[in-house]
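Q&A log
Question type: sequence-to-structure
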Amino acid sequence: MKPSYKKQAVKRYVKMEKIKYRKYHIKDFNLIIKLIYPTRQVINVYHKLLEKTGSFSKSHLELINQTTKNFTVLNELHRDQDKYGRLYTVREDLNNAVYFLQNELELKEQDILLPASTRWFYKEIHWQFYDMVFTSKQAALVLRKSKSSVYRHLSELVDRELVEIVGKKRTAYVYQIKEKKE
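Response status: OK
Response body:
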């Protein structure tokens, strides 16, 4: 016996536009979350924080907001909802999105991605050693910090390319603050 109904066509592929310089992994991440949770809505109460910094362009703000919403959807079990089922973004989602996107964002001020203590340390050594070379011992003496905390902050700043190693003085590295790109 032959069935009397016609089989429906199933859409198996999603057509994605090709952009010349596309950040594939980020856009694909956002697209996958959108496909998995098509009806989930998110209220981002922190979107004004990024606009106030002035460090992001409009396209970057849009990308950060979209990624923040997707992190909120992924963590929906741990997020509050309103009576309509919309999820509220928490600050952790915003921090995760900015950290996730930090290599793609060309920021005017790179130091806003730093933790608070490292940001303070960077501003202090920037003020003390603006155009001079210095060692970690000199920084520890001037800032009255322990060698271990100075080393931790300097290694973080070298990783973030805000400070560079320009040489060695006996067994100590010699550091210099990189000039900001305008």
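Response note: The first helix runs from residue 24 to 36.
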